[in-house]
Amino acid sequence: MESSSEISIQRLFGWLAGATASNIIVFFVASWLGASWDVGSPQLINLAIVVVLTVLPLTLGAWVTSLVSKKSLSARGVLVWAGFALALVSAPAGLLMSTDPTTGIALVVMHPIVATAWLAITLPRK
Fold it and tell me: pTM for the whole thing?
């Protein structure tokens, strides 16, 4: 059983799978609805980018949070809520940078999915 200061690998993988699957569904639905996936970068957003940008921040963030929480539970609390806030505050950027509303809305929807997974992965359990 995990202590309140640990992030379990099972919880991490479970929420990674759920968030990734959810964002893949959003990607395909938005694509079907005509999303261009153009956000002004040299490359259009594609499925691989969606998967990497779902998995990588959650995995690296959980790893850093796990390391920090071994030294300070209060610092963990800061990281947990800062990560959550970052995911939510950055959500409108997709809408502002996209060249079409379907892409923007899809990107806005993906951010709270990752934010929810972040909380579920990193919040200490009682």
Answer: 0.90
- The C-alpha atoms of residue 63 and residue 61 are separated, in whole angstroms, by 5
The enclosing H or E element of 74 equals helix 73-89
Q: Are 94 and 104 in contact (CB under 8 A)?
A: yes
**pLDDT by 10-residue block (mean), the chain, 126 residues:** 70 97 98 97 96 97 91 87 95 93 97 97 85
Tokens of 62: 């959980």
Tokens of 103: 């892409």
Q: Distance between CA atoms of 98 and 82, rounded to whole angstroms?
A: 25
The domain spans of the chain are 9-122
Q: What distance in Å separates the CA atoms of residue 25 and residue 47, rounded to the nearest whole number?
A: 10
